[in-house]
Structure formats: structure tokens, C-alpha cells
Amino acid sequence: MATMNVIGNNGDTTNTIVTVGVVNSHENDNVYSSLNVTGVADGVVEQAITVGHLHGNLHVNETHLTEAEHVTVTDSNVSLLQEVVQPDYESQRLQEYTRTVTGKADEVFVPTQTYKLSAACLTEASLVTIIGSPGDGKTATAYKILSDYQAEGYDIFIITKPKELKYRRNPENPTIFLIDDIFGKTEVPKETFKKWKRALEELEPTLNSTFRLVITSRDYVFNEYFKQLGFLRDSLFREELVVEVNLTNSEKVRILEKYISHHNLAMTTVDIKQIANMPTPYGFPQTCALFFRWKKFQSNPVAFFRNPAHFLQDAVRDLAEECLAKYVALLLVCAEGDVCIASLNNDDARLAHLLQSKDISVDFFLENRYTIFPELCGTFLERDSDTVTLAHEAIRQAVLNVEDHNPCLR
């Protein structure tokens, strides 16, 4: 853990402080520092401009733990012993991650009317909110937009916390943010909603041609929170800046044909039209993504699109019969939401319980985890670095239906 020694004024208030002997350290891919603020008793530092992000009302002779971010140390009227500004490793890492994630959208993306309207909103107002049902392609549309702006030289970030709206932006570079499912997949805690609301209120005046924002939300969640947004309803979330996903049948045909071409498969024109004209329970783009994951189900495309759950449950049952260790790995991801492969150990009670219930050795599982988890990716799981998550929420429901008596999933 790195230490920053901060020198304040003689009991007065100063707007700027400097860092002394700063050393950055990494722990679990996060950068942390301890701020040791020193000065005359009762002195106050209103804004700490250090390698850490902006702080308010830091009192002298206190120690504060903060997430390290790169900002410029400005001129000050306090003594400067040694000025050290470290690179913003976390922001660089997040940008690389965002580029990797958003780049995937280009492979099978079709420029729908939703995409065109969203792009127009960003051009005219530097802001758009995309709403729709789960699996309708909100996030894929947002990813494509970020990818477009990245190609134009913008810094791109997927924002997950309200405080990031303040310190992720580099004023020297054009930037675009994405807040995906801003109000949660079902709901967010009241305090979290208040923080997002305050952050957006502060952000609104700064939006311009070099700073843009994309927001996504499930339609039913957005409608629930819209009435609590106050004056933001008539500014950031006014009607002309909210685009609702509504795929036409012709767009569905184009999306399906793009997937077919990308995966080099054959499908009859009759099947394509029938699939495009019937409702799908998980959202059409996501059902397409699911369908092309399992080759053994592609012989009956109309049946799959009509009822994917039946096929997914068959796939989960087959997995349990073929390899219990892989099935336990899938159970663990369903229970945890995401799993860091490297962090698994003998002290993980949930993992131990799952393995015991299937009569599998913990040592065997841990020794083979880098074979077990990767072999589930591309079908059941997706992987980012050392972390795995479900490829689709519909898989969780299929697992629950197969393993409906396992308390570890509840």
C-alpha cells in the first residue's frame, strides 16, 4: 500500500496540496494509497489534488484511504519537497478493457433504427439514453457507438460508479462514457440512486462536443425511476433524448443473416422469415447469440427460437452427465455471479460445499481449474482476463430448473 505525505498550510485553508515521496502499488489490479495529511491542528485542506482523486474537507492529522487516480499537481503556496505524479494505470486498464469489449459488437452488428437515432442524439445533444427489454440489444448498440467514437480519437469508458463521472474524464482528450443499466437490472438501493442522480446533476452542464454520455436501462426499471429524477426529466432525460429499442421484422432478418454469414452456416429463407416474424422470450439479438453457441441445436432453428429454455436445459443436463467438475464450475458461477479463477482456494466454503455434494475432490478441482473453466467459455461462460461470467442470464434459469433443490443457488 503506497503512502502519500501531504503538507498543508499553517492552520489556514488551502485549495491545493502537494504529494511527497509517492510510490504507486498494485494489489488485485487496484491501486490504493494512504493519505497522511499533516499540518497545524484545525487546519483544513478543502481539495486534495494528488495522485488520488479529488477530495473534499480533508482535515489535518488524519489518515484517509483512497483509490489512486492520476491528476495534475498544481502550483501551491505550501512547501514542495518532492513532486511525483504517477501514470493513471487504472484508467489505462479500463480503456483497454472497454476497447476489447466494445470491439466485439462490430462482428455481427446491424445498424438498426435504434442505432441511427441514438447516434443522432449524441451528435445534437452529446447525450442519449437507450431503453428496452432484456436481450433487445441496448448494450450492443451502446458498444457500437463507443467503438465508433473510439475510432474518431475519443477516450471511451464504461462507468460503473457515480464517482467515476468526476475523475475518469481527461479534459485534454475528447471522452465518451457509457453507463450500462444505470438503475440496475431490477432496482438499485435508494442511496445508490441518489448518488447517480447527484452525479448526473453535476455532469449535465459539462456535456459538449468533446464530452458525451450514453446511458442504457431496462424499460420497466427506467419507467419506475423516471418519476424520481426531478428536473433531470426535462433535461438529460427529456423525451427526444430517450430512444426505445423496437426492432422491425426486416431488421431481425438482417441480424439473423449477419449471424449466419459470420458463423458460415446455412438456413432456409422460409426459416429466416418465420423466425423474424415470431416473438422470442429472451430478446431477438440475445437469442441469436445463444443459438449460434450450440452447434448441436442448429439443426432445428425455428424450434430453438420459439423455446430456447428447453434447449438450454438439455445442454445443462448433458453437461452434468458428461463432466461433473464442469457442471460444478457452472453452478459456482450461477451462485456467485462472476468468479475469479485465480482466487479460488480451499477456504471457499461455497465451492467446498458444491464439490462435496457431487463427490469431487477440492484438490482435483483446484489443480484443473484452468482447464475446467476455459472449456465452458464460448458456450456457457464468457471470460475477461481471469474472471468468468455467464454468457447469458437465460443459462442461470436453465441451471436453476435442473438443480432446483440446491440451496447454494438461492
A few lines on this structure:
The protein is α/β, with parallel strands linked by helices and 410 residues long.
Account of the 3D structure:
The chain is an alpha/beta fold and about 400 residues long. The chain folds into 4 domains: about 1-85, no CATH class; about 90-245, Rossmann fold (3-Layer(aba) Sandwich), CATH 3.40.50.300; about 250-305; about 310-410. The chain is built from 16 helices and 16 strands. Helix 12 packs antiparallel against helix 13. The longest helix has 15 residues, at about 90-105. It is globular, with a radius of gyration of 25 Å. Mean pLDDT is about 80; it is low at about 1-85.
Write the layout of secondary structure elements.
Layout: E1 2-7, E2 13-14, E3 19-20, E4 26-27, E5 30-38, E6 44-47, E7 56-59, E8 62-67, H1 89-103, H2 113-125, E9 127-132, H3 138-151, E10 155-159, H4 164-167, E11 175-179, H5 190-203, E12 211-218, H6 219-226, E13 242-244, H7 249-262, H8 269-277, H9 284-291, H10 301-306, H11 308-322, H12 324-336, E14 338-340, H13 349-357, H14 362-367, H15 369-372, E15 381-384, E16 387-390, H16 393-402
Parallel strand pairs: 1-5, 2-6, 9-12, 9-13, 10-11, 11-12
Antiparallel strand pairs: 1-3, 4-5, 5-8, 6-7, 14-16, 15-16
Distinctive features:
alpha/beta; Rossmann fold; 4 domains; 5-stranded mixed sheet; 5-stranded parallel sheet; 18% strand; disordered N terminus
**Helix percent band:** 25-40%
Gap between N and C termini: 36 Å
Shape: globular
The major pleated sheet works out as: 5 strands, mixed
Q: Give unreliable regions as ranges.
A: 1-87
Question: What name goes with the CATH superfamily of the largest domain?
Answer: P-loop containing nucleotide triphosphate hydrolases
Kindly report the oligomeric state of this protein: single chain
Computed structural class? alpha/beta
Hey, roughly how much beta strand do the residues contain? 15-25%
At CATH level 2, the architecture of the largest domain is 3-Layer(aba) Sandwich
